[in-house]
Amino acid sequence: MSAAQTMTRALMRLTPAILPFADAATPELPMGRLLRLALFQVTVGMAAVLLIGTLNRVMIVELGVQASVVAVMLALPLVFAPLRALVGFRSDRHRSVLGWRRVPYLWFGTLLQFGGLAIMPFALLILSGDTTGPLWVGQAAAALAFLLVGAGLHTVQTVGLALATDLAPARARPRVVALLCAMLLAGMMASAVAFGLLLTRFSPVRLIQVIQGAALLTLVLNGLALWKQEPRDPGRTRAAARGPGFSESWRGYAGRGRARRRLWAIGLGTAGFSMQDVLLEPYGGQILDLSVAATTALTAMLAAGGGLGLWLAARWLARGGDPFRVAAAGCGTGILAFS
Q1: What are the tens digits of pLDDT across the range 25-57?
Q2: What is the extent of the structural domain holding 213?
Q3: For the chain, what is the domain count?
Q4: 24 neighbors 34 (Cβ within 8 angstroms)
Q5: Quick check: 146 and 74 in contact, CB under 8 A?
Q6: For the segment 255-286, what is each residue's pLDDT rounded down to a tens digit?
Q7: pLDDT one-digit tens code per residue, 82-140
Q8: Is residue 47 within 8 Å of residue 156, measured between CB atoms?
Q9: Hey, how many other C-beta atoms are within 10 angstroms of the C-beta on 322?
Q10: What 3 state SS string does the chain have?
Q11: 23: in domain
Q12: For position 262, which CATH number holds?
């Protein structure tokens, strides 16, 4: 055996250790196809950074919008979050003339996301009071824009994850989901850096360009992500057999073991960490006098910390760690950081 062959085999053995998600690929779902599918997570991360990070600070500091109004706007995308279970359930049972279950939901979710981002910059300019029109028009338009983006990103992420689990074999699904979570954090970090660089010299015109560029990029990346991913099944053109409804299925899940307690823990933990998210960039702008680029870099650091936490949790669980202890360690670390 030549030295080159020996080195190649050694690198192939090391790859899963160096890249924790390199073993997520399977013959049914090769790495190239999986990474292309994961592009929808990049657009979700980009929208999250834009709403909670960049626009949160810009609306309060640069545009002079009241913090209470901004808080309401940022809460609107979460209105759709409880409906994710219903969206996933409906996509499972969707009857499609074209034989697709997931693609229609992914496409219409993308259109909602694109539409919200397309009208958002002009709505924000009206909301800031820098016009001669009535203020309520800006408030209504901004509320519609945030609601559309929230509905779109929640639909895309829910159905995209469902499509990934459809395509991956059962043995690889945990690693595939972990890779998709890592892509979400990568999208957040890349978007935070890009928005920070583009808004270094802030102006209303530059803000319009950045948000509309994000809208176009969302359409392109999501289109690439779902292209030729879901095979068409003629069986889905027929009416689905009568089965349990959503409420019955939900009761079956919620009544299983300690599912309700887990849901409460996830909900409270998410609320706690999200409160810090909302305050991070306006605090940096108003109290610390940081620029838009500097406060957006804080969001990039937040995403980097999330990636580190995901990697540590994956290694801990792979070594037989207790999931409850891992979650408790994450909560304790967050409380320490907040303190």
Answers
A1: 667 777 778 888 888 888 988 888 888 777 777
A2: 29-232+245-338
A3: 1
A4: yes
A5: yes
A6: 777 777 888 888 888 888 877 777 777 777 77
A7: 777 777 777 767 666 666 778 888 888 899 999 999 888 888 777 766 666 677 777 78
A8: no
A9: 10
A10: CCHHHHHHHHHHHHHHHHCCCHHHCCCCCCHHHHHHHCHHHHHHHHHHHHHHHHHHHHHHHHCCCCHHHHHHHHHHHHHCHHHHHHHHHHHHCCCCCCCCCCHHHHHHHHHHHHHHHHHHHHHHHHHCCCCCCCHHHHHHHHHHHHHHHHHHHHHHHHHHHHHHHHHCCHHHHHHHHHHHHHHHHHHHHHHHHHHHHHCCCCCHHHHHHHHHHHHHHHHHHHHHHHCCCCCCCHHHHCCCCCCCCHHHHHHHHHCCCCHHHHHHHHHHHHHHHHHHHHHHHHHHHHCCCCCHHHHHHHHHHHHHHHHHHHHHHHHHHHCCCCHHHHHHHHHHHHHHHHC
A11: no
A12: 1.20.1250.20
**Model confidence over 188-229: pLDDT tens digits?**
888 888 888 888 887 778 888 888 899 999 999 998 888 887
In a domain, 22, yes or no: no
Q: Answer whether residue 11 is part of any domain.
A: no
Q: Report the mean per-residue pLDDT for the chain.
A: 78
Asked whether residue 177 is assigned to any structural domain, the reply reads yes
Report the predicted TM-score, pTM, of the whole model to 2 decimal places. 0.74
Nearest to 193 by CA among 45, 39, 19: 45
Q: How many residues does the chain have?
A: 339
